[in-house]
Amino acid sequence: MISSALKQIEEKHYEEELLTAGKQLTFDITGCSTYALYYVDPQEASDESNAASNAGYVAKQRVDAKKLMNLPAGVKIKYVTSNKKLAKVTRKGVIKIKKNAGTVTITAKNKKTGATIDSCTLVIEKPIIKQKKLIVHGVIASDIATWQKRSADEFLCNTTVKPQWYSSKPSVAEVNKETGEVTIKGKGRAKIYAVFGSDALKSKFGTRKVYKYKIVSKK
Question: CA of 131: how far to CAs of 101, 124, 142, in Å?
Fold first, then answer.
């Protein structure tokens, strides 16, 4: 009965052009709670989904679903995943991508009515760290300045998504944040991190310290 009443009200307001993209209407149904209709333009929703698909995502990444969809303010949202083996979503809208590659769709629904508000599709890749550890021998003061740089391709493969690169100890191994090119600077140990989906190593989102390799620089 309630769903039928909601449908009639929605059709009436849509036909009279009272319900337009981005507009929310609140109303009461006799004997029931207060409900709200929120219209999302299908083309806008499609554009959002396509943008999400084209952005590129990787295994073990955390993503903010709210930034990928056009969601109304003040409406309680229920998030649904099309494949729990590929990704799960918390109540707060944090998408937790699992360890496998594939395509998954995340749908945002009105928690009260069950109506779909928006969705996004994530195409997931699974990067591979080819070399877990690099041991460098014979680095002395005269060699450091002319040491051959190491390309990111030597260590990372199986992905088209571009990460940001970080070094745990730049005094030992310095890494170019954009290209992943490493230059040995001195003796010691350092970890090199490839971070996807974030421009900060300690961010709540992204992959943080999942993808890494070690450099051991010896005398």
Answer: 20, 22, 27
Q: What is the pLDDT of residues 79-108, one digit of tens each?
A: 999 999 999 999 999 999 999 999 999 999
pLDDT band per the 50, 70, 90 thresholds, residue 74: very high
**Three-state secondary structure call for residue 155:** coil
**Least confident piece of the model among 50-59, 166-175, 187-196:** 50-59
What is the token pair recorded at 218?
A: 């010896």
- Give the 3-state DSSP-derived string for 16-80, with helices as H, strands as E and coil as C: CCCCCCCCEEEEECCCCCEEEEECCCHHHHHHHHHHHHHHCEECCCEEEHHHCCCCCCCCCEEEE
Could you tell me the CATH number of the domain that includes residue 203?
2.60.40.1080
Using DSSP, state whether 167 is helix, strand or coil.
strand
Nearest to 128 by CA among 98, 158, 162: 158
159, 88 Cβ separation under 8 angstroms: no
**C-alpha closest to that of 82 among 65, 107, 59:** 107
- Integer-rounded Cα Rg, in Å, for the chain is 24
The verdict on residue 17 lying in a domain is no
Q: What pLDDT is stored for residue 136 in this prediction?
A: 84
Q: Judge whether 138 lies within some domain.
A: yes
Report the alpha-carbon distance of residue 119 to residue 48 in Å, rounded: 8
Query: Whole-angstrom Cα distance, residue 214 to residue 39?
Result: 51
